[in-house]
């Protein structure tokens, strides 16, 4: 096992920069997740660590060893791909043992290692089967088993659950977390699924456009996102973003007036007429029974009039997708299971202004709150 350190890593393909200024250190034994939208550079980082891509510049360390010029087969890392990459003519046991055989490990050690790994992944009854006789979840466990059997210094997992159905993905995700707790091997996991990132990670690295946006533990990033991109990417449903303009003591949101909390005015420098993006998570929005307000009425804390577009019953709760009347600005609301407005209804929402975020509309950087 080992720590992994990246120092100012950049990767260019001809005139295109895939990643740059990538700097972080993963302590020995931790589970880190690289997350972000498609094309953000997360798989490029993983492949660079594995040695499948070469860094254009910067330094990459595994343990205390600089590995920039060390080939992939000598880096002592094990990678699990999205497509499993099992050998179809081999049995489960042979697939698990393959990496050890390539290293000319003693046969008795191989047999013992295969049985140990198979038991830990509940594969012992499948050892004589071929991959085509396995379900998707079983094939994924075999791919994991092949990596585990090698006992590498680092695990690299590239969207390993994306080919599984929803229930199997949830089950396998839980198995992965338990397996890491038992093995304690440094693990780097790539996904675009924010639920996987939140549930698996010791630390999350949020990426966009080839650059790091924020690094932190899941709860800290959720509570205090560094910018608008992070705020809207982590969270399901995502944070509501309301384009507005500061008007002295209030915010004008598409003609509706929201009171600017005194704490916001005191803590950040914001000028009259400045455009900002206001952020509020759906769990901090509730439906109230007050009649709709007229535009000219003064703000009552965080009251907002919206028009219901879609109602999605989810069993324990109802997700209501609404818009500001006459606009395309979406406002998501998490309501009780028995709340069922109809599409086209106009409803009043109360925003908990104690949980308000303010982002710079141009850069997307968080202006408020300054800290937790």
Key phrases:
2 domains, six-stranded mixed β-sheet, single chain, elongated, 9 helices, OB fold (Dihydrolipoamide Acetyltransferase, E2P), six-stranded antiparallel β-sheet, 24% helix, Rossmann fold, alpha+beta, 372 residues
Terminus-to-terminus distance = 34 Å
Number of helices: 9
CATH class of the largest domain, named: Alpha Beta
Strand order of the largest sheet: 6-7-8-3-9-10
Can you tell me the CATH topology of the largest domain?
Answer: Rossmann fold
* Shape designation: elongated
Low-confidence spans: pLDDT under 50, at least 5 residues?
Answer: 294-300
Main β-sheet description: 6 strands, mixed
**What structural class do you assign from the helix and strand content?**
alpha+beta
H/E topology pattern: EEEHEEEHHHEHEHEEHHEEEHEEEEEEEE
Give the percentage of residues in beta strands: 25-35%
CATH homologous superfamily title of the largest domain: P-loop containing nucleotide triphosphate hydrolases
Q: How would you explain this protein's 3D organization?
A:
- It is elongated and about 75 Å long.
- The protein has two domains: 4-232, P-loop containing nucleotide triphosphate hydrolases (Rossmann fold, 3-Layer(aba) Sandwich), CATH 3.40.50.300; 239-368, Beta Barrel (OB fold (Dihydrolipoamide Acetyltransferase, E2P)).
- A hairpin with a 3-residue loop joins β11 (240-246) and β12 (250-253).
- α2 (92-102) crosses α3, α2 packs parallel to α4 and α3 (107-120) packs across α4.
- The chain has a six-stranded mixed sheet with strand order 6-7-8-3-9-10, with helices on both faces. A six-stranded antiparallel sheet has the order 13-12-11-14-20-21.
- The two termini are 34 Å apart.
- The protein has helices spanning 42-50, 92-102, 107-120, 136-149, 166-183, 194-200, 218-223, 228-233, 262-267; strands spanning 4-13, 16-26, 31-35, 57-62, 65-66, 77-80, 154-158, 186-191, 203-208, 211-216, 240-246, 250-253, 256-259, 275-280, 285-288, 303-313, 317-323, 330-336, 346-351, 357-360, 366-368.
- The chain is built from nine helices and 21 strands.
- The protein is α+β, with helices and mostly antiparallel strands.
